[in-house]
């Protein structure tokens, strides 16, 4: 009951004309920044930090809440419409979302994303309000071997699911892990694959990799098809706003499953929403593969609903971990931690006592921000979808300009522009030869974590490799992975046999 009373006081604080204005402005600015390739919710919060110096702490953090969730939805808008996610957290939803857009269902994909953001954000916020201290205790159960098992699970599961061939998926994963090795080794201090360039000592920025593989790679692929039948084909857009009853029935379980997958990952410091969004995508694809009329690969609505809900649920509980423990589990949470320190506040258990009015106003603004985003973005889904009616040469030229501006804005390095071009050519070659892009990104994002935790586990155990499977959590993850991959291989073998039998019968 204390939580309900405190939350009610938080709503009274937020529901004033000025504070509601900050929620609206934050949601609008977050969405606008998220749409730009290479930028995202973390960058939006960072850019707005200087702007909030003149605001009181409550007004500033209320606006940050709107920016946080608005940025996540903005990331998805550019990913769905232009195959250019504003941040890596929107990559998984982009896989099917962009295919829906190319099939003339852009508005439905955006509506699915908006509702997923609402459901994932609201449910995770409810859990944060009532169970933040209990949820935060889950993080203490994870040691080096558990983090390594989690990374390996994500590596193999995504490589097996997104590619028709496991070999091609693992080859793409190897490319991502190779890119992740660039930079200074965190444990030994030795530089690796930097060619003596000081700019590469910190590795290649994930923004450069994401924009290069997804945005520039797509632009080059489209340019390479110029003059072909595929190039002259117009992308239709029906512009229908509301989901049909069938689409809603397909999306609802995916929204709930995605939320349940994303909630615990907000407490576990694995770097953000990439892992749960890809796991949600993999879950939906595996479930759909059991049905003969699966739309995966052609624009499955579940492939948008699950990852989008997971991403927003992770963002919600990540804020709970930040408030309850002072533990930033994502890049956005780390920027929010800097914002707290800017106002002389230290997140953690004592924050609820020393700044209870601020904490509960921030939690209340999560709920209000979700409603504002739904009202703000759902009616505009058909309007965003109109972007696809622009001539391709204008649309993709604009993507290239904004992508390059986004990359340069994050680092102000000319070398990053050269790298994004090189990685764009790599992305084009991967599309040309049928290699999936998602395993590359997973390898880049989780490769450093897996390497660090592996070496830490081996150092603690003095070289005893059995420690990697000794814990119940790690052993369970490996067991589920083996069963899942085995089942997938059996399923694909059966499908190939059925296709061969049908070909033989037709002959």
From TrEMBL:
Pfam families: TctA. Residues 20-441 form the DUF112 domain. The chain crosses the membrane at residues 21-49, 55-73, 109-135, 147-163, 170-191, 203-224, 318-340, 360-381, 393-426, 433-450, 470-490. Keywords: Membrane, Transmembrane, Transmembrane helix. Coiled coil: none annotated. The keyword Transmembrane applies. Signal peptide: none annotated. The keyword Transmembrane helix applies. PANTHER family: TRICARBOXYLIC TRANSPORT PROTEIN (PTHR35342). This is Tripartite tricarboxylate transporter permease. It comes from Streptomyces hainanensis.
């Amino acid at each position: 009951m204390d939580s309900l009373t405190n939350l009610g006081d938080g709503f009274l604080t937020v529901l004033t004309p000025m504070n509601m204005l900050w929620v609206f402005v934050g949601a609008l600015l977050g969405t606008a920044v998220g749409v730009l390739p290479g930028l995202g919710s973390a960058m939006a919060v960072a850019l707005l930090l200087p702007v909030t110096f003149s605001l009181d702490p409550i007004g500033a953090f209320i606006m940050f809440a709107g920016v946080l969730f608005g940025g996540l939805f903005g990331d998805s808008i550019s990913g769905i419409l232009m195959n250019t996610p504003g941040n890596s957290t929107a990559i998984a939803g982009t896989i099917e979302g962009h295919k829906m857009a190319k099939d003339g269902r852009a508005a439905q994909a955006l509506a699915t994303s908006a509702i997923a953001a609402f459901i994932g954000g609201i449910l995770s916020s409810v859990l944060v309000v009532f169970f933040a201290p209990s949820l935060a205790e889950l993080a203490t159960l994870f040691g080096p071997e558990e983090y390594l098992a989690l990374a390996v699970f994500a590596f193999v599961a995504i490589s097996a699911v997104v590619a028709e061939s496991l070999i091609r998926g693992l080859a793409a994963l190897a490319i991502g892990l190779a890119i992740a090795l660039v930079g200074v080794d965190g444990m030994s201090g030795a530089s690796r694959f930097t060619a003596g360039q000081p700019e590469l000592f910190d590795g290649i920025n994930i923004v450069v990799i994401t924009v290069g593989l997804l945005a520039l790679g797509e632009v080059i692929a489209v340019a390479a098809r110029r003059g072909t039948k595929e190039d002259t084909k117009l992308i239709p857009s029906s512009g229908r706003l509301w989901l049909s009853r069938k689409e809603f029935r397909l999306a609802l379980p995916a929204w709930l499953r995605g939320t349940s997958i994303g909630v615990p990952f907000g407490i576990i410091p694995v770097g953000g929403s990439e892992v749960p969004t890809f796991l949600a995508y993999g879950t939906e694809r595996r479930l759909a593969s059991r049905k003969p009329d699966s739309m995966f690969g052609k624009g499955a609505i579940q492939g948008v609903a699950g990852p989008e809900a997971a991403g927003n649920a992770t963002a919600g509980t990540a804020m709970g971990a930040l408030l309850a423990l002072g533990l930033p589990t994502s890049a956005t949470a780390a920027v929010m931690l800097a914002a707290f320190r800017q106002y002389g506040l230290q997140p953690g258990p004592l924050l609820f006592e020393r700044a209870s009015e601020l904490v509960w106003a921030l939690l209340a603004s999560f709920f209000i921000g979700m409603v504002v985003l739904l009202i703000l973005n759902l009616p505009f889904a058909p309007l965003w979808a109109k972007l696809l009616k622009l001539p391709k040469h204008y649309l993709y030229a604009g993507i290239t300009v904004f992508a390059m501006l986004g990359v340069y804005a994050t680092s102000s390095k000319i070398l990053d522009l050269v790298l994004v071009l090189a990685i764009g050519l790599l992305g084009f070659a991967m599309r040309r030869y049928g290699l999936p892009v998602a395993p590359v990104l997973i390898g880049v994002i989780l490769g450093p974590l897996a390497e660090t935790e592996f070496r830490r586990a081996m150092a603690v155990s003095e070289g005893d490799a059995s420690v990697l499977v000794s814990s119940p959590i790690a052993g369970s993850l490996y067991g589920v992975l083996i069963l899942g991959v085995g089942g997938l291989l059996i399923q694909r073998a059966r499908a190939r046999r059925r296709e061969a039998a049908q070909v033989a019968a037709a002959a």
